[in-house]
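Section 5: illustrative case.
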């Protein structure tokens, strides 16, 4: 390989690596939310579902969840810390088991064509 080719390949590699930023995780604040309280009280859960589906008002905490929920569902929690992944898995499986109607409202809002369903199910089983 001649020097010009080497410099060119090196420059392309540098540009590529500079453009690929490390993936940042969601804020640790999402792990501090009392999901047990939400999941154990149907009235509270329904208020959160109304918020994230844009059918009701939002508490500040619900607004925070609403901000990341579309991406969490679309990417199967790709930016979640290990702790948050566990929380998301438990939250979704609990909703599927105990509150299937509420879960369907969320799915209908954020994945109406079920484009992410298989990947999400695999994530839940992991």
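Designed sequence:
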């Amino acid at each position: 390989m001649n020097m010009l080719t080497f410099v060119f390949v090196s420059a392309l590699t540098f540009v590529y690596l500079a453009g690929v930023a490390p993936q940042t995780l969601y804020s640790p604040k999402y792990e501090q939310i009392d999901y047990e309280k939400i999941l154990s009280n149907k009235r509270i859960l329904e208020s959160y579902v109304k918020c994230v589906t844009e059918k009701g008002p939002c508490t500040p905490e619900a607004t925070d969840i609403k901000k990341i929920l579309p991406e969490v569902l679309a990417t199967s929690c790709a930016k979640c810390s290990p702790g948050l992944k566990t929380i998301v898995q438990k939250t979704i499986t609990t909703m599927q088991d105990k509150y299937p109607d509420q879960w369907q409202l969320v799915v209908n809002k954020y994945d109406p064509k079920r484009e992410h369903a298989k990947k999400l199910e695999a994530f839940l089983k992991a």
